[in-house]
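Students often ask why inverse folding is considered easier than folding. One informal answer: many sequences map to the same fold, so there is more than one right answer. In these notes we will look at a single instance of the problem. The structure comes first.
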């Protein structure tokens, strides 16, 4: 939940860090690398206190993640491979300094 108007989340847009404005009583959900996620960071200000809580969620390892087949057409082709064991892929990429989304992208 965002509160007290204390900004801290920033996203990288056109090589510049931009503050994400706070919305009272709103919850920020960063979907992560299961989709195209923006580069982001959290900054602190010594004038104002804020608290951040990061939580992770991933689908069951046997579940396959992929687009709805009816959304794939000749003009909107599949861009990424379907994925199982997302957590394992994500962890392995983190260890190797790679971006998980790049591992499943069609070239």
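Output (designed amino acids):
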């Amino acid at each position: 939940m965002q509160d007290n108007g204390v900004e801290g989340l920033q996203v990288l847009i056109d090589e510049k860090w931009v503050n994400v404005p706070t919305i009272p009583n709103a919850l920020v959900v960063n979907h992560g690398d299961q989709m195209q996620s923006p580069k982001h960071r959290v900054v602190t200000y010594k004038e104002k206190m804020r608290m951040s809580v990061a939580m992770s969620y991933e689908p069951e390892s046997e579940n396959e993640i992929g687009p709805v087949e009816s959304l794939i057409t000749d003009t909107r082709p599949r861009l990424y491979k379907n994925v199982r064991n997302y957590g394992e892929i994500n962890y392995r990429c983190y260890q190797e300094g790679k971006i998980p989304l790049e591992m499943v992208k069609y070239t």
